[in-house]
Sequence to fold (682 residues):
Amino acid sequence: MSFSHLHQYQQKLAQLGQRQLLLLAGEPAWQTALIQQVTQLCQGDWVTISSNQPDALLPEQAIRLLGREFLHAVFDANEGFNTDALAMLTGTLKAGSILILCLPEIESWDRYIDNDSQRWNDAQGVLSTPNFMAWLKNITLGDEQVMVWQQSMPFQLPTLIEKAKPWALPQGKPTAEQQVILDKLLLSTSGISSVIAPRGRGKSALAGMFIEQYQGNVLVCAPAKNSTDVLSAHTSKAISFYSPDNLLALCINNEIQSDWLIIDEAASVPIAQLEALCGYFPNVLMTTTVQGYEGTGRGFMLKLGDNIPNLRTYQLQTPIRWATDCPLENWLNQLLLLDEPKYNFACQQQGDVDIHQLQGNWHNNISQLYDFYQLLTSAHYRTTPLDLRRLLDGQKQRYWSASINNKIVGAVWCIEEGGLPFELAHDVWLGIRRPRGNLVAQSLVTYGLIPDAMCLNSLRISRIAVLPQYRRQKIAATLIANIVKESHKQAIDYLSVSFGYTETLAQFWMQCGFQIVRLGVHKEASSGCYTAMAMYPLTEKGEQLLRSSLSAFALQYQQIELQTKLRLADKLIPSYSATAQDNWLMMAGFAFAHRSTLTVYESVANFLVGYEQRYPLLVAFFVDNKSVEQCVAEFSLSGKKVLTKQLREQCARLMAEKDAQLTSRYQQWLSTYSHPSCFDFV
Fold:
């Protein structure tokens, strides 16, 4: 059966309720010509995701497709392989669809340069990704249900596997699974429910059917309005749609109420926001997939259950948009490890806990890759296919596991940071460079007193996860203690961690020997919490950095507390007193460079004593804490840029009034690449 029979083949696919992958491996011009022929033979939507094709959807925009349905698609991976976008696109394709995957010749895959690696790799620049490409090659070429068309070889259609039981698309009526859940929801008088399932199981359709049958008021909330297309198609009623931010604002102001709130694609909404919305409605239904590519992993439900104790959870298992055992779904699940992990959360092994540092050559140890990654997806709510890419080809990664009877029950994933040139760190301190990576180290430089955090060698704990049934047994703390012990031997100056601040997490890290040295003023999109950063010094240089970081944190804490309304426990509040040199250093960095206003609130207040009448703008902004908008209006300025320029210039004049000679020395120092400790300015 040849290319000319592709149309009949695709029609048979539709009859069987199947979807299939067509790999085009060759030059882009050859691929373009073939795609034109295929799209003429097989009519459909042909949604295209590509970084360089005109009129195509960019990979980072694929989230717009969630909650919608299409027939046929093209995924152009010639220059970059965004696995999240691939998963989102695949989940929207209905029965009879062909997904065309465009890649270079298979013989060149081991040299494939993946531009998407800039997004997930913590080192600089793009990478070749030989391990992922070997993984892709093994799964794709080993799957008899994948159509492979190489430019250098003739094309042959595979043989379709026909099922004894015929498939039929449900004609708008609920399936038996859906009906059971619908009946329970319609009888509910109060409470919070969730419907979870892999893609294509009819979660959004069920929500639409509920709206159609329910006699009261229902509001719908989702990250994007077009993600409710499927929901809307299953009800004749008008949908009252609100974005999460807008709806929460209306709720806070008591401007809206309803019998039911439906949150579609709930895993894409920060958990803190979900929890807040649930408090305003007597009945809430959340629908979502927890396969990772919406932004959270299966641990999302564990996290949600912790925050909403009486959550009722329903599951849909049977595909509706396509038939069971769909070739395309099987291929994707193998490629991105999306199948449900085979953990029995009620079962608990007994025995000693063994801690091991793993080698990380996952492509040579597939069973270990499965165990490590599936533990993360089961126990950590932020795990996505992007993490699988890091595991396979990411640089500067280290891994530890905790096992009982050779079964992994806990895992820690670390990333090497620092070791960078002082000149680069100095530019970051000045606020003129923002290189990729070095999350904690760079933040400590950006808001700190010295550039050392990016120059010293550090290890950031990126992920830590323990299976639910093994928690509160000190497994996580034992893992951390082992990492501390091993890092002492490996010339690591300090350990660091960044986490969404909660009192419980802060207490855990403090018990492990870490101290909080930074607290962000903007909430994380995923957790809805403010970002906290903590460090554990391992060398004398690490100790010096800790003292310096605590001094900087102490200078900023009062303003951080004011902006976040978050007060740390007394034992977590930095008690270090900033020196006169610390204040001068912060003032110089703001006045003569490009550092943030957050770094100088207390320093400016100290400098202003006795000079308040001469600097009303500085008093208004830094002492009275008036907003940008208020200061712009009060002082007749044209906008934020002009305000910031005025604040810097006035700080420079204030410094000069205090001590012109010292101010000149600081201004001169900023133009050199000398460490501030080299100068005894004050």
